[in-house]
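#lab-general

N.A. 3:47 PM
ok so I finally got the sequence cleaned up, no stray characters, all 312 residues accounted for. can someone with queue access submit it? mine expired

B.Y. 3:52 PM
send it over

N.A. 3:53 PM
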Amino acid sequence: MARFGDTDEREMISMIRDCIRAAPSCATDDDAAVLPVGRDDLVVCTDSVTFERHRPEGMSFEHFGWMAAAVNMSDLAAMGATPIGLLSALALPGDLDTKDVCQIMTGIDECAEFCNCHVLGGDTKVGCGLVNVTAFGVMEGRNPMTRKGARVGDVIAVTGELGAAAAGFLALANGFDMPDAVSALCAPIPRVEEGIALSSSGLISSCIDLSDGLATALNTICSMNDCGAIIEWDLLPQSQSVIDVCDRLGIPDRELTIGWGGEYELMFTFDRNDAERLYELGVDFSMIGLITEGDVVLHRDEKYEAIGNGCY
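B.Y. 4:20 PM
back already:
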């Protein structure tokens, strides 16, 4: 019998699906579940962060709390939902100072305020250093954006810049003075407004956030839609901080740009004929490639390289 710690997350999720009953009128292929409630759709998601895995040295407890909320708000954003509130459950070491506990909750509340909602309740107990947040949103009549729906010929696009969170992690680890990159890692901005605008357009064929990195997001979308992708390196909106960190450490920039997670931009697909209509939404995005019938590949320096899942 395989051990949990040795099992790939996606493989484990597949095994869990085989153990539970399928919920009626609720797909489980996305990071958030959509539940018809009255005249609207309720969108619910939950995620956990831990001291061991998600709090690098130098990250404040306030930033840790922000991140715990942001990972969930980003899942709502990927569906195009409007956040309406969240619950937080804390399982923290008994010797942790109470002011640090309050700082975690302050960070959670600050992210909730940024997303125009509130902390509605939760739970606290002594534990290993884990914060779980459950977030709720509504579609307000919009159709949710899902991972299923990308078509061959669709354009692939991303919001914002890529790689800043990875650069921030290495900046903290190496003592580099790079506050913007560190902020991208410790206080990521959920693209809630962008998600609402994109879902309102009705033009998006699929959408996913980049919490696990661009490479993993691409493979997830392509696997679900039985397709491939070509990504153009020269079109990627690479953060300047990636270039700075890689120059200082003498390391390649590919993995930081597409292979790391910890950032919360949106990746989405749409019909190329709708590009102008999407630009009119005022959403800042870059077109980076196309959905194809082949493999998932990166076109760089006149060569094609396979893109596997990232390392985050």
